[in-house]
Known about the structure:
The protein is of the alpha/beta class. It is about 45% helix and about 15% strand. Helix 7 links the parallel strand 5 and strand 6 (about 155-160). The longest helix is centred in the first third of the chain and has 19 residues, at about 110-125. Pyridoxal-5'-phosphate binds near residues 250 and 306.
Amino acid sequence: xxxxxxxxxxxxxxxxxxxxxxxxxxxxxxxxxxxxxxxxxxxxxxxxxxxxxxxxxxxxxxxxxxxxxxxxxxxxxxxxxxxxxxxxxxxxxxxxxxxxxxxxxxxxxxxxxxxxxxxxxxxxxxxxxxxxxxxxxxxxxxxxxxxxxxxxxxxxxxxxxxxxxxxxxxxxxxxxxxxxxxxxxxxxxxxxxxxxxxxxxxxxxxxxxxxxxxxxxxxxxxxxxxxxxxxxxxxxxxxxxxxxxxxxxxxxxxxxxxxxxxxxxxxxxxxxxxxxxxxxxxxxxxxxxxxxxxxxxxxxxxxxxxxxxxxxxxxxxxxxxxxxxxxxxxxxxxxxxxxxxxxxxxxxxxxxxxxxxxxxxxxxxxxxxxxxxxxxxxxxxxxxxxxxxxxxxxxxxxxxxxxxxxxxxxxxxxxxxxxxxxxxxxxxxxxxxxxxxxxxxxxxxxxxxxxxxxxxxxx
Length: 459
Ligand SMILES: *Cc1c(COP(=O)(O)O)cnc(C)c1O
């Protein structure tokens, strides 16, 4: 399988080359040259890790040890059960797909645990090191750090918006004492963090000298890993391969739902992908109107992992909408890259629906689901359930993706239900642990200084 850049300039490359690279040299994102075809009949009965291998081996066909790495990543020890992503049925035709049983209690562990093992293997084979530079609005950072902690040859530099994450998220990341983990709290919002990462990556000399790599959802391996649970959820909710289902997906960076789109392009019978935004509703607006209109900044909300105004994976979807014409995409993206308030008009594909949710909706949904089904859901999952139920069609099973556990967002749960969410074992005293982080300006030069300093100390 070859990977193409969405900007049409960088040469096509094999998977192991794009794995460590992040953005393509022309500033684009890598996408596979074609979508491999699903084999529903033989995949239906597979255990998660075997299903994952079947799917991932279509995308990662130049990694001889893939089966072993997949099996090492998707274990009962890491995810609490051999199901990995258990499906809970609330009532006939309404399901919650549990994606948040990994080490950091959010769906990002599903991709990141694999990525940690892929990186370690690829680096060992090439005899080199990697400095991972990432931006997080909360869950990516902790998932990445828990996947990379203690890994040979890897340093992690994670930018997060200072004071914007929940106390639990902050404690999860900042309490890690592993010497290869570096937390940088940026004075700004998530979009500022993401822009700084892009700027550092745009300095190709620095990027090469310091072997900068990415773990944000721009990394194709993460998208591919997320494709797996759409299949798993479909098989758990249906009896035959002719049935259609819809998925409700709380969305920020468009990574999770884009993986659902890839699953459908591979042949998974998905009727609708229902996108849920919070108050930061650029994506909802796009799917309702065809107009992709950036806001100046993202508002801080009670579903903070979706507080994003520029969804990086949207570029991959737009590439398909533009007939895979990289030059056409590069022309349209010029304004976006400089944060201009451009209006990108594109025609969305059929098979998407969307909606938005507010803080009040979130609280009402958390209460309603708790009262009716005895289940506590986190605020992001609530955004998805709210919009999913609005868009639900009679006779079509609806699978709502649970993207985090409520324990991560205690303030909102307390506001909704008047009590604290349950804490999984091992997380009882998290906030009391000592924290390690450095506050910096939203400035690429500041980040480069930190990276250079750490690398110098290693030599
Ligand atoms: C990251 C995240 C999202 C958004 O997923 P995207 O892939 O960025 O669209 C939603 N909910 C939670 C809990 C998350 O951590």
